[in-house]
């Protein structure tokens, strides 16, 4: 048991840290969000609900300015106020908002939100273990190496999840009769909306695939499904 302690302790600590973070996130979202109320958006959400054979797709508005969508650890779907503001300004369409929600639904349906707990726990444990081991031989530098390695690992897993959620969204949008055109047009606007060019981040450290790659993947699905 003594020999296993250096391995078990980081796992336990990482798990506790993640659970606390998930609990804090849930409380924060409860306090800073409200249900989405918009007739046009509710109509397009209803089309996806029919495609999924569920009574309703509930979406919440998270009261922050940055443009983003997210699936919470408990499976709830959120769009930021900044995203809804862009919709009301006519910068994005209801169908493009539906593409965002479809993507976040993909994260939930494919188990990404639940598996993320395992992934983050493992990454935190790996960081603590690597930092501890390297810290004995190369203090300070070992900490940065451990951080870099675990960040690259997490980014790779995140990109995989994003690609899978994109594919799920494409299928759902097609089934709902919305099609993938809004998904592509949203990606064409995304870097400008979020204020991120992504050029300064090495590919292996990016948490999301490059926009051009995501659009190309959608077009490949279009060809495969006979939609082009």
Q: What descriptive keywords fit this protein?
A:
single chain, about 230 residues, alpha+beta, four-stranded mixed beta sheet, 8 helices, 4 strands
Report on this structure:
This protein is α+β, with helices and mostly antiparallel strands and 228 residues long. It has one domain. It is 67% helix and 6% strand. It is built from eight helices and four strands. The chain has helices at residues 5-31, 39-52, 81-88, 94-109, 112-135, 141-175, 181-194, 211-224, and strands at residues 33-35, 59-62, 69-71, 77-80. It has a four-stranded mixed beta sheet with strand order 1-2-4-3. The relative contact order is 0.11.
């Amino acid at each position: 048991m003594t020999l296993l302690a250096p391995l078990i302790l980081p796992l336990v600590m990482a798990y506790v840290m993640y659970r606390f973070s998930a609990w804090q996130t849930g409380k924060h979202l409860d306090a800073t969000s409200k249900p989405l109320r918009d007739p046009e958006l509710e109509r397009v959400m209803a089309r996806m609900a029919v495609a999924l054979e569920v009574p309703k797709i509930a979406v919440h508005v998270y009261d922050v300015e940055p443009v983003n969508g997210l699936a919470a650890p408990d499976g709830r779907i959120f769009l930021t106020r900044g995203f809804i503001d862009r919709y009301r300004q006519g910068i994005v369409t209801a169908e493009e908002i539906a593409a965002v929600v479809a993507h976040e639904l993909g994260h939930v349906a494919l188990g990404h939100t639940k598996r993320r707990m395992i992934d983050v726990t493992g990454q935190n444990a790996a960081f603590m273990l690597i930092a501890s081991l390297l810290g004995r031989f190369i203090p300070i530098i070992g900490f940065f190496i451990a951080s870099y390695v675990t960040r690259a690992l997490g980014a790779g897993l995140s990109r995989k999840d994003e690609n899978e959620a994109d594919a799920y969204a494409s299928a759902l949008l097609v089934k709902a009769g919305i099609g993938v055109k809004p998904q592509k047009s949203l990606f064409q606007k995304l870097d400008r909306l979020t204020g991120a060019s992504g050029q300064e981040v090495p590919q292996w450290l990016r948490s999301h695939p490059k926009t051009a790659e995501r659009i190309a993947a959608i077009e490949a699905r279009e060809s495969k499904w006979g939609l082009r």
